[in-house]
Write a structure and sequence with these properties.
By secondary structure, the protein is α/β, with parallel strands linked by helices. It contains seven helices and eight strands. It has a single domain, classed as Rossmann fold. It has an eight-stranded mixed sheet, with helices on both faces. The N and C termini lie far apart (34 Å).
Length: 221
């Protein structure tokens, strides 16, 4: 279960240079904040940050922004960033915000890739619109992605994955690739970076599902 109530988490986030406090003021200016014109990739619901920090260390010419709703969880990502393992990283920032507001934070075309990893399944039908792979959220992603931008989604939840496959089509997007067993798919698993949840669920024998979708017919695999 995600941590949600750590005393003074908000104070630590407010004081940390990698945590963006005035995110709406950065709309259209993220490249200026990073000081370069490198591509911007974001993860929505980044949890404790292992996935995004690993990518930022591996690919220094890509700028990464992690979005997390809960300050107590974001605090854990900041603690990892401050550790010796990730010392000196300058290509990553974090925002504590609701993902429903991303079009208030990024301009059209400002983001080249969106990662969704083990998102909340919101299992009740009446909450389907809240799922990060609903057609409502795909419409939000369309407002910030580049023309050839992509969304990559991983989960071990088969009902959520089936729902997501349907939503890609209903949203008018293109399904570039998908697999129901990522770790046994030599093409889609190449270069895969595992999240904390992915490590946990795969160690339990759960197959990991993944899809890649784009607004255009651009093929990334």
């Amino acid at each position: 279960m995600r941590l949600r109530n750590i005393p003074h988490a908000d104070d630590v986030i407010l004081a940390h240079a990698a945590a963006i406090k005035n995110e709406t003021e950065q709309k259209g200016n993220w490249h200026t904040l990073f000081g370069n014109n490198h591509p911007i990739h974001i993860e929505i619901g980044m949890g404790k940050g292992q996935f995004l920090l690993t990518l930022a260390k591996k690919y220094p010419t890509i700028n990464y922004i992690g979005i997390e709703r809960y300050s107590s969880v974001l605090l854990r990502a900041l603690e990892k960033l401050d550790s010796e393992e990730y010392e000196g990283l300058t290509n990553i920032r974090f925002i504590c915000m609701d993902a429903a507001d991303i079009s208030e934070v990024f301009e059209k075309g400002e983001v080249e890739k969106i990662y969704l990893n083990f998102s909340d399944p919101w299992p009740k039908a009446r909450h389907a619109r809240r799922r990060l792979t609903s057609k409502e959220f795909f419409a939000r992603y369309d407002r910030v992605l580049a023309a050839d931008g992509t969304v990559e989604f991983k989960t071990d939840n088969r009902p959520l994955f089936d729902f997501s496959l349907e939503q890609v089509t209903e949203a008018g997007w293109t399904l570039n690739a998908h697999t129901f067993d990522l770790h046994h798919d030599p093409v889609m698993n190449e270069g895969n970076v595992m999240t904390e949840y992915e490590q946990k669920f795969s160690s339990m024998g759960n197959p990991i599902h993944k899809l890649i979708a784009s607004r255009s017919s651009f093929q990334c695999i």
